[in-house]
Amino acid sequence: MADAARIVGVLGGMGPDATVDFMAKVIALTPAGKDQDHLHMLVDHNPTVPNRQAAILADGEDPKPALAAMAQRLQEAGAEFLVMPCNTAYVFQDAITTATSIPLVSIIDVTIDVIAKQSPAITKVGILATDGCLAAGVYQKPLAAAGFEPILPNDNELTELMALLDKVKGGYQGEVISGAMRKLGQALESRGAQVIIAGCTEIPLVLDASMLDVPLISSTDVLAQVTVQLARGELPLPIRE
User: Fold this and answer.
1) Secondary structure of residue 44 in the 3-state scheme
2) 238 with 105: CB under 8 angstroms?
3) Are residues 63 and 146 located together in one domain of the fold?
4) What φ, ψ does residue 12 adopt, rounded to 5°?
5) What pLDDT does 154 receive?
6) Higher pLDDT, 2 or 215
7) Assessment of whether the complete model's pTM goes beyond 0.85
């Protein structure tokens, strides 16, 4: 590890449980024998960021000003790179990069990169993600560019997925919710998905790899691992374009 680990800036609160889950995974993945071995994370935990789905699909309040302000606060506080454990919010990433001079690590890019490296022979990738995320194509476009065919929930499945995510955000994370989420993953399997992306950071709270017959790639897990590697100097920081 580098002499001094890089300071991580976390744009959080979207949603609260997902942010806590991300931070817990960063801690679990960090090789540490004492407090001082862990990473310095600056967290702007802001659940008041306007609804991303509403902004994309229904002319709702623009979340860009809130996201830009969060990013600026984190940079001013000393963050050396930014991460955001919310997939849909990456639709608005330009507001963050315009407001700051430090890199923003894309949860979308690192998740697709893991699939391309670990499963280069597959052709069909299932995506469980919010309606706003899917409508914006933030996963479908880069997956197609990388040579993968995206497999998406149908309209009824997407409606059910959104209802389940609302319940998860409301604190309901028991077996009934997990079972329903599993069925949505199995529906993608039945249509040929050879790997499935948990493309919303609430999904890993109720769905894990043991529940499906094909690999489940948790975007939260991937971002946590990359965050640790970047902070410890094991990977170079992304170059801002």
Assistant:
1) strand
2) yes
3) no
4) -120, -175
5) 97
6) 215
7) yes
